[in-house]
Specification:
Layout (H helix, E strand, L loop, with lengths): L1 E9 L24 E10 L17 E7 L5 E10 L27 E7 L5 E7 L8
Parallel strand pairs: 1-6
Antiparallel strand pairs: 1-2, 2-4, 3-4, 5-6
Length: about 140
């Protein structure tokens, strides 16, 4: 089994209410305060015996879906609740490009994606809301 990628969504990240629950979309519930949802993309080879879905019992994952590859391997998308990672503060200010300016940071609903290499060597994407704060000089 290969852990291809992870997406981590902290408890404070879901900020847009769901307008309607479409039946063909698998909705993942928001985690409790202090927790995060870790969504994992896993690939199992033909040699990997899976009775239900990967990590169902060992990590209490929930299945989102799966599909076969031409190689006859299977791609699985699962999620589970983890303790929310605590990122280190990042000093510095925004860098604007392609004609953007400070005024483009006004309003709500701003998001950022942060890429990370995890201690186990896997890659992760953090889905986060952006809160703009003025830096006191």
């Amino acid at each position: 089994m290969t852990l291809a990628f992870r997406i981590v969504t902290p408890w404070f990240a879901p900020i847009t209410p769901i307008a309607s629950l479409e039946s063909d979309i698998k909705w993942i519930p928001a985690p409790a305060v202090g927790k995060a949802i870790e969504t994992a993309i896993l690939i199992t080879s033909l040699d990997c015996k899976v009775s239900n879905w990967p990590c169902r019992d060992s990590m209490q994952t929930e299945l989102i879906g799966s599909f076969p590859l031409e190689s006859r391997e299977t791609v699985w998308l699962v999620y589970h609740v983890i303790t929310c990672p605590q990122p280190q503060p990042m000093p510095g200010g925004p860098k604007y490009f392609k004609g953007k300016s400070k005024g483009d940071l006004a309003g709500s609903g701003l998001r950022m994606l942060a890429w990370s290499e995890e201690p186990d060597g896997s890659r992760a994407l953090y889905d986060l809301p952006v809160k703009v704060q003025e830096i006191e000089k």
